[in-house]
Design a protein that fits this description.
The protein is an alpha/beta fold and 220 residues long. It folds into two domains: 148 residues, 3-Layer(aba) Sandwich (Rossmann fold), CATH 3.40.50.1000; 67 residues, DNA polymerase, domain 1. It is built from ten helices and six strands. Strand 2, helix 6 and strand 3 form a beta-alpha-beta unit. Helix 1 packs across helix 4, helix 3 packs across helix 4 and helix 8 runs parallel beside helix 9. The N and C termini lie close together (7 Å).
Length: 220
């Protein structure tokens, strides 16, 4: 193993509780009672994709751009001021850098939100490359974002560990030939058994990984 690609939301950043409620907050502000299935329906979508879905499903008199703007405003404050890293995440990044392991970030989060969080938390320094929807990638159902990021790190998929918290994203990376580390996010605990089936390595926290032998695979 020669390099690492990290997801941001739910993997390094403890942001999923905010995202799991933002769709409901958005609909409530429009006077719509959020359906029970709404979070499950949109969890694998980018914000623009979710906006188009909202417009179709609820016959909203809004453009996708207006939906994106409203949802972005709801999330912006959290990224600028509130959302913390998961316990042990920065220590793991710091140790990877100390060992000379090239790292990158591949996220489908709004670039401006991602940038605000990275700046506030001071962790951009750990990544040799940062890939977002601004680079032309619309989601993680397609492995293109991982393949592109690996090329930026100059490592082949089989040499590049992908770290994810979402089952669908972990499966995409695995099917494209990447070894995958699954990190538990409480918002996805119901899918943890499936994540363990997909991933070669799983952990319930970055702190747990730091006390184990995870970095040995980078010397093999």
């Amino acid at each position: 193993m020669n390099s690492i690609i990290f997801d941001l939301d739910g993997t390094l950043l403890d942001s999923m509780p905010m995202w799991s409620s933002i769709d409901r907050r958005f609909l409530t502000e429009l006077g719509i009672d959020p359906p029970a299935d709404i979070t499950e329906r949109i969890k694998a979508m980018t914000v623009p994709q979710a906006g188009e879905y909202f417009i179709r499903r609820f016959s909203l008199d809004l453009t996708p751009e207006q939906v994106t703007e409203r949802v972005g405003a709801l999330a912006a404050r959290a990224y600028r001021e509130e959302l913390p890293l998961k316990p042990g995440a920065e220590a793991f990044l710091r140790e990877a850098r100390r060992r000379g392991i090239p790292c990158a970030l591949a996220s489908i989060t709004y670039p401006e939100l991602l940038d605000a969080a990275l700046k506030r938390l001071g962790i951009a320094q750990y990544f040799q490359a940062i890939v977002t929807p601004a680079d032309g990638f619309s989601g993680k159902q397609d492995p293109a974002i991982y393949l592109h990021t690996a090329r930026l790190l100059h490592t082949a998929p089989q040499e590049t560990l992908v770290c994810e918290d979402a089952v669908y994203a972990a499966k995409t990376a695995r099917d494209a030939g990447f070894p995958v580390l699954g990190i538990l996010d409480p918002e996805a605990e119901a899918e943890w058994d499936r994540m363990r089936e997909i991933c070669g390595i799983t952990a319930k926290s970055w702190t747990e990984l730091l006390t184990g032998q995870i970095f040995q695979i980078f010397s093999e």
